[in-house]
């Protein structure tokens, strides 16, 4: 056919040449299923290695805390932006609800105030008595611990993880291990922190363990989360130490939490185990307070703890004018007496040596054993005011 | 005379990247601390949909890598042990990849049964891993409350398979 040019055979290999730009791998048949399987197996091996290497400390801090912190630094603002409309919606709905239910709410609040007024008076009286007892017994009362308010911006509610991301971080003093409360009670503890956000592991997480006490009997137990809404009470000491309705408080054992933070009430679970109905579940856990509590060592002054045993004697209050005058008068008297004593000693030293006389030693004052003395005593070694007589030992009466 | 035919090309951007981004966004949105009528939002494992669909749509090297990344994202976002959901999702991917010839062509109840079986297997694996790591088995009720919303995502599985399975004419 006219116009068609047959390909020029390559003298080197006998085939037509293929340029690289023509795509020599275009017709390469790659077994897609096998390559996908290889990648999947490699990913499974990587996941297993991650699982093995990810360990948690006693404060539930991950060994990949740097990676988690970086991730939360990125995700925190995104979640904050996404959560903002939801919070606006919640505030608007509560505003509308408050408007429509103002009358019934007012009645309820008046009744509650009337009920609480007697409790307030009783609490003030008890606080006064308690303060006096503490002062009399020398008890070390725990000072107030600073708090930081924050807001939950994301939430994990699955069976394997119960955690929240808070919009306060180390820039506000939050540290790993700080307890977190809402207006009703304890919610959880901080398990990871970055500059602007922090991660809170909740009491219901499977990794959560908390030493608690039963308020009525002061019995101790360990509250263990299991991913459900009501944590279990384990290792309850004593028989009959727990009853349904008993208040559960933090015991402060181990120093990780302050003592007496309200947690919930005891209840029997359907599986027969003791469980805790959390106070914090009474409302939404959105606004929380992070207690800047580290351990019991924070509650005392380390300088006072490490001071010498009698260092407290230097802390006496300054004397008033009368006391200061009395102290100065006593000091002047002591100083005058000391000067008079020194003057008598000097006069005795300068006096001539006394002639020995038959002395009658005082029966009440023992006389030292006679020793050979120089004729002129030196001033450096003042002699006694009465020179030692040369006489035998004044043995006491009845002595052998 | 050679007649030109329209070749519809569905690249990884359409069936891997965009769905993965949508899954991440949905997970973040459902992770908001919101209570409606006293109830929390559901928390399904949304990447389970992709772990089941991607090997059925087409075997690919990119899909398992992205799925691994989604698992790491879930572990970081939910404060779980790193590698937990990566392992669970990859186990679903591998299972479906090897059973691809058995599942392909089925629709309706059979496909849902496969999806449910894969989902339950992945959750069982995660449950055992968490129970062994913490020495404390998670509550069954809360497990059910996460499995159920995940199973209810089956319409998304169906839609993805109808949308992308056999959609690239080059693979016919």
Question: How are the SSEs placed, and which strands pair?
Answer:
The complex is a heterodimer of chains A (400) and B (172).
Chain A (H helix, E strand, L loop, with lengths): L31 H22 L11 H36 L1 H36 L9 E11 L4 E5 L12 E3 L4 E8 L4 E5 L6 E6 L5 E5 L7 E3 L12 E4 L11 E7 L5 E5 L8 E5 L10 H5 L14 H30 L50
Antiparallel strand pairs in A: 1-2, 1-12, 2-5, 3-4, 3-12, 4-5, 6-7, 6-9, 7-8, 9-10, 10-11
Chain B lengths: L11 H19 L4 E2 L2 E2 L6 H11 L4 H16 L6 H15 L1 H4 L5 H26 L5 H12 L2 H11 L8
Antiparallel strand pairs in B: 1-2
Give the biggest beta sheet of chain B.
2 strands, antiparallel
Spatial strand order of the main sheet of chain B: 1-2
Q: Percent range for helical residues of chain A?
A: 25-40%
Ends distance of chain B: 24 Å
The low-pLDDT segments of chain B are none
What is the domain total for the residues of chain B?
1
CATH superfamily of one domain in chain A: Rod shape-determining protein MreC, domain 1
Largest interface: A-B, 59 and 54 residues
- Sheet having the most strands of chain A: 6 strands, antiparallel, barrel
Q: What is the CATH class designation of one domain in chain A?
A: Mainly Beta
Principal-axis shape of chain A? extended
Shape assignment of chain B: globular
Distance between the termini of chain A: 162 Å
What share of residues of chain B is helical?
A: 55-70%
**Radius of gyration of chain A over alpha carbons?**
44 Å
Order of secondary-structure elements of chain B: HEEHHHHHHH
Work out the helix count of chain A: 5
